[in-house]
Design a protein that fits this description.
Layout (H helix, E strand, L loop, with lengths): L25 E4 L1 H4 L5 H14 L1 H4 L3 E3 L25 H11 L3 E7 L15 H10 L4 E5 L11 H13 L6 E4 L16 E3 L31 H7 L12 E3 L12 H13 L4 E3 L8 H7 L2 H7 L8 E2 L9 E7 L5 E9 L5 E6 L14 E5 L4 E4 L4 E7 L4 E8 L1
Parallel strand pairs: 1-2, 1-8, 2-3, 3-4, 4-5, 5-6, 6-7
Antiparallel strand pairs: 9-10, 10-11, 11-16, 12-15, 13-14, 13-16
Helix pairs in contact: 5-6, 8-9, 8-10
The structure holds alpha-D-galactopyranose.
Enzyme class: hydrolase
EC number: 3.2.1.22
Organism: Hypocrea atroviridis (strain ATCC 20476 / IMI 206040)
Amino acid sequence: MFVTTLVVGLLAVPCLGSVNPAKPQMGWNSWNTFKSNINETLIKSSAKSLVDTGLAQAGYKYVNLDDGWQAFTRDSSGRQQPNSTRFPSGMKALADFVHHMGLEIGIYSDSGIYDCAFYPGSYGYEERDAATYASWTIDYLKFDNCGSFQAGTLSPQERFLRMGDALNRSGRSIFYSLCQWGNQFPWHWASFSDSYRISGDIKSAFGEDSSGVCQSAYCLNTGYAGVSVLTMIRKMRELSRFQRPGSWGDMDMLEVGTGTMNLHQEQTHFSFWAALKSPLIIGADVNTISKVSLNILMNKEIIAISQDDAGVAVNYLPDLSTEHKVQVWGGPLASGKSRYVVLALNYGLDTTKITIPLIGLPGLNRSNLAKYTLREVWAGKVYHHGGDNLVLENVALNQTKVVVFSER
Ligand code: GLA
């Protein structure tokens, strides 16, 4: 959230964070692996690992605490406080540590009376909590949707807007990551946040959803959590066109490196999150993550697609796709000399050949094709354009080939 009000006079204004919602945010979050079992040793070692592994250098700058940092009661002034056993040094000291490493720190709260683990939510305390986070020099807030039944009559829109306003008045630039689970279709109203979750929680599984999970973005809240990677991608068929700089649809934290997917599945997962302009927030344990998963998360060309200047997501191309077998997505790129990206996923066939007629790629300038170089990103293979079709040989089951068209 950008600070819009100039604070003048004798008020001490804490130094501002560096929100850049023009690009999907990148970082790490504790939830997928650690749930509420977090403490300051873990957060510090994760921050250090982000630097030591090269992830920070690759762009993953937020160190985000999810649920579990809080005490069960507010202090005598009504301020939220950390769990003193697990965070004995307090949040300001932790923020100082993270900032000292050249990173930024995120925290979690909730728009209801309670959060999902029955810690105090921010309902009715929005101003006070935003001021507290600013005083701790927090840079990022993930704001959840539990406890809303107890919050009674206020609509989710109003509850989330109240915190957005409070952050704006906090005197610090704090990234506002809204987590309303897609329940009330936030792509239609949440543009006051910097990003908004499009669904219930992701599951560490490539294709197997938990029971009752619905497949489209608009079906109602049956099967809240347990959305597999393939289903999350499916939901984006309806949402890719809503993606825009400063208001990113969030496909939830990455499951790359959490141990349930093979190489091709992890590459597919990361490729789609990047090309669909979802935030890239690592959910794995960065202290123990495998080199293979690290290499996926640090692929410079895929990250460049995510952070591309145009901020336009790829769209699903039904005419080039066959349900349950092959899906093809494409869209423009602006950065450098790149101009277009195609994702071709085999999700139902034995190793196959995928032929994509270039005429079927909307927005590709075909009059210039002779001047394009085509680069298959994961294979690092370059070829020059040679006809009316893009022919991708040997696409294995669950593999995605990502091809970037660049003008020479
Ligand atoms: C909700 C959110 C998750 C996580 C948990 C914490 O389920 O969607 O991402 O923050 O709450 O309790």
